[in-house]
Design goal:
Number of domains: 2
Bound molecules: NADP nicotinamide-adenine-dinucleotide phosphate
CATH superfamily of the largest domain: NAD(P)-binding Rossmann-like Domain
Order of helices and strands: EEEHEEEEHHEHEHEHEHEHEHHEHE
Strand content: 25-35%
CATH topology of the largest domain: Rossmann fold
CATH class of the largest domain: Alpha Beta
Number of strands: 15
Radius of gyration: 20 Å
Helix content: 25-40%
Largest sheet: 7 strands, mixed
């Protein structure tokens, strides 16, 4: 099988494609014929050793795949050869074949294309856990989403709307904002791409204040970090919840006096840990997400696809802040 490998620490240009023996499933495992692999920001980080998990090299990036079961390990029940599934891998997905624990595979609806299956659980799973379990968002509340046209951001926009929130999208270009509005945002703001000096930070905070109105945002979904975090926190509502999702713009430091003045909470969101610690709750979330997909309330927006040999370019789209919705690597 062919796989895209990270053999040295570095950016997407360090990835190489190589022929490897097919992996064999052990007890409780299945081997998937990978048909599509979703690209997520963790792929940008993991090949540079900047992610919370640092797999031993060589490894293939790619945390989420859709494909068919083509071999069963001993004792696997509940899955059979040919089943179409979504697999949660962490890494290893940018390869023609992938061995996974059967428990990490979820059957896909017949109507779901592989590209959408590979762009589904990581983004919607993260954003649903954030809004449902961590923020306990209620219908009628306002939700400000930063990076609203990105993978997890666009999922948060769609889910916020589906959960009855008033969604305010924030993004760095008009094109990105228009995409978020087409996916359900009620209002929005275009922010500058940064970097920001002191005056720039003040202007950014004012932009968010105008966008959120006098009452502020009940929930802020921050998948961007950097200077955007504090500037947006300044427009949170009394007793609001600020969701910490990710830091493509850098890890921010927040003055804690803001939490006192706003009576607000800063809430960490780590979906991967949630899936490991509370698997049953996660399974329930995934069932609810598939029901929303069937009802047409949510649907991954795949803006571009790349063949396996161009997987590095797919990761570069995210690294260079160009990606909209989801970028997917597809395999014949
Ligand atoms: N907490 C969790 O459990 C969890 C789960 C999944 C992902 N994440 C994290 O969530 C973040 C977003 O992931 P994603 O897969 O949705 O990525 P993505 O599709 O690339 O979206 C990230 C967004 O961040 C913004 N951004 C700001 N500065 C940027 C920069 N210097 N480079 C790239 N993007 C920048 C961009 O929006 P604008 O241009 O509009 O600002 C972009 O759309 C990542 O940090 C990822 O690690 C966390």
């Amino acid at each position: 099988m062919r796989a895209v490998l990270s053999k040295v620490v570095g950016g997407p240009d360090t990835l190489v494609i190589e022929e490897l023996p097919d992996p064999q499933p052990g007890p409780g495992e299945v081997r998937l014929r990978v048909r599509a692999c979703g690209v997520n920001y963790p792929d940008v980080l993991i090949i540079e050793d900047k992610y919370q998990f640092k797999p031993e090299r060589p490894f293939a990036p790619g945390g989420e795949v859709a494909g068919e079961v083509e071999a069963l390990g001993e004792g696997v029940t509940g899955l059979k050869l040919g089943d179409r599934v979504i697999g949660q891998a962490g890494w290893g997905g940018m390869a023609e074949k992938l061995v996974l624990n059967a428990a990490r595979c979820t059957p896909m609806p017949d109507s779901m294309p592989f590209e959408e299956g590979a762009a589904f659980f990581l983004t919607y799973g993260t954003s649903y856990y954030a809004l449902k379990q961590r923020a306990a968002i209620k219908p009628g509340e306002s939700l400000l989403v930063l990076g609203a046209a990105g993978g997890v951001g666009l999922a948060a926009v769609e889910l916020g709307k589906a959960m009855g929130a008033q969604v305010i999208a924030a993004a760095s270009t008009q094109e990105k904002l228009d995409l978020a509005k087409a996916h359900g945002a009620h209002a929005g703001v275009v922010y500058p791409a940064g970097p920001f000096d002191k005056d720039g930070q003040k202007e950014l905070a004012n932009l968010f204040k105008q966008a959120c109105g006098p009452n502020g945002a009940d929930v802020i979904y921050d998948a961007v970090g950097g200077d955007y975090a504090e500037a947006s926190l300044r427009s949170i509502a009394w007793e609001g919840r600020f969701l910490v999702i990710g830091f493509p713009a850098g890890i921010p430091r927040i003055p804690l006096n803001l939490t006192l003045l706003k009576g607000c909470q800063i809430v960490g969101v780590f979906w991967g840990a949630f899936t490991a610690r509370q698997p049953q709750e996660n399974q329930q979330n995934l069932r609810e997400l598939l029901a929303m997909y069937a009802e047409g309330k949510i649907r991954p927006y795949v803006s571009s696809t790349y063949p396996l040999e161009r997987a590095g370019e797919a990761i570069t789209e995210l690294a260079e802040r160009r990606a909209q919705g989801k970028v997917v690597v597809t395999l014949a």
